[in-house]
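ok here's the first one, seq then struct tokens
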Amino acid sequence: MSLVAYAPASTANVSVGFDVLGGALAPIDGSLLGDRVLIEKGTDDYSLTCSGRFAHKLPADGKSNIVYQCYLGYKAALSEKGMTCLPVAMELEKNLPVGSGLGSSASSIVAALEALNALHDYPLGEMEMLALMGKLEGEISGSVHYDNVAPCYLGGMQLMLEQGALISQAIPSFKEWYWVVAYPGITVSTSAARAILPAQYRRSDVLAYGRHLAGFVHASYTNQPDLAAGMLKDVIAEPYRQQLIPGFKEVRKYATQSGALATGISGSGPTVFVVMKELDQAQRLKSWLEEHFIQNEDGFCHICHLDEEGARVVGTQL
């Protein structure tokens, strides 16, 4: 038996919700923007191979790969339930660049765990899985946060709650919005992007953050897209992180002139996102970004809607 699990790219923070808001991404052309993991019963306890566009960016030592940590974590979780993990052979198809701001590590983690859980007939529930995903993500970034793994796993726009066993819930999203995401081809590490942030914030910034986040969630539930777009302002990270992204100010200026509802940094960057209302505007912006923002052959740009499905089994072979 073999199966392939897919986990979509995600945009964390979404400007207004630092560490507490994230959305999964689905290109409107039907392509899959995210990592895939093939799993089958193996002859040894565990084996891993890697393929895909960005496989060369992964550690040469397979036991340094996050997928191995997923296997160990899942095996331990099954053991706590009195169950035994099957011997598995896994292949990670690495389609997202590392350090891109598109939830690359989250995509690998979620795809691997979704594959493992599916192979074992889903013994772990959603919140058990999400807790394990957050723990593994924290081992990479240095702190547990769910704003990539939650939308990647559950789909849609997710609000992190972390109330008891409830980690995250979906909030309504605007189906008419186009999310133009552009990765320039350079790397910004999450740890470096966090290190550049101040240790303390002014009271006015904290109040603005709370107002914008509350306003966005309220507008999402009351179907007020213009109000929601107006709330997409980042006073926590963008003022400091924009210096790590060459051309960000030019992107914001051009996007605004082109009718953008909002522009922001996806996760820790360097990917930027622009919310557009009209498809023709989004297509013109995509062409401009490909010419003026993307720096090398590793870069790319996609027009997306939110991926409402999240992680899923997509077939039996890569």
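and now the second one, same deal
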Amino acid sequence: MLDMPDHDTLYAALLARDPAWEDRALVGVTTTGIFCRLTCPARKPLARNCRWFARPEDALAAGFRPCRRCHPHGSVAEAAPWVGDLLDRLAKRPHHRWTEGDLSAMGLDPSTVRRTFRRIHGQSFLAMARTVRLRGGMVSLKQGAPVIEAQMEAGFESASGFRAAFVRLFGHPPQRMREGSGLLADWIDTPLGGMIAIADDRALHLLEFVDRKALPQGLRRLSVHVGGRIGLGRTAMHDRIGDWLAAFFAGRIPLPDVPVTFHGTPFQQQVWQALQGIPPGQTRSYAQLAAAIGRPTAMRAVARANATNRIALIVPCHRVIGADGTLTGYAGGLWRKERLIAIERGYA
């Protein structure tokens, strides 16, 4: 997909078992004749004994055979067929409070489940289950249910746990989510995880993956910008955003027809507008982005503005990569960045 970087970068990723390199790079070990994923739990070879491949076919053609532990010749999910079973169980029991005991009772090792889900989905299974339960609470609150009823519907045993989950996400407790507000927040499911969309009748103000660590801070800053709290609800703009996201992930519509309202400094807005000018299927380095706005020496400032973007996908900060062609940090997770670039290269 992307040009592979130098040997040292790949070897460092191998030692770190970096999941960002799934489906992008494989390592062949000359002393064993085996090729593996970079996330393989097997003992790591010496750097001088490593060869790098972009595809399983290339490793096989070079005479290497696939590892029986990490199954590098199939998809990540194929290496752990029980992943699909767990996801099916979660879909059937969205309000269940999943624990490591549940996993052990199914004959699964909780630590293996945690590592595998983080490698495939960017978060643990238990974290994913908590997110699904929180979504149920949001739906109940939006429909006017009392907080205690929403808490029970979401499968939270205690009011404090339910309240804490909301405070972590929104910066204030659930009972204040229903008080009057000019901006409304709603949940939108996508193939890469749930997203929070905040909009009014005229424009989108925020679109973020719910597991992004900086989301609560972004929500608080948005509240300050608009001079009020953010409520729960849905507008016609949310429907418009949801329709575009569905089309985007289905490979039908690359460019959004969604009006946005920026909340940032003039410089930040200039960078965000430049991001929107990067065509789908293409990428830019920070240096190229800085040059595009006429500030070639402001690469660090451009990087900071890129990191403060609060409208994911529609303002495509995921299209910025390292100068050497490697993927750089993405607050939504490098695994998501990789998949978004792959989707958009399909458009190109």
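notes on #2: Residues 290 and 302 are 6 Å apart (CA to CA). The mean pLDDT is 82.
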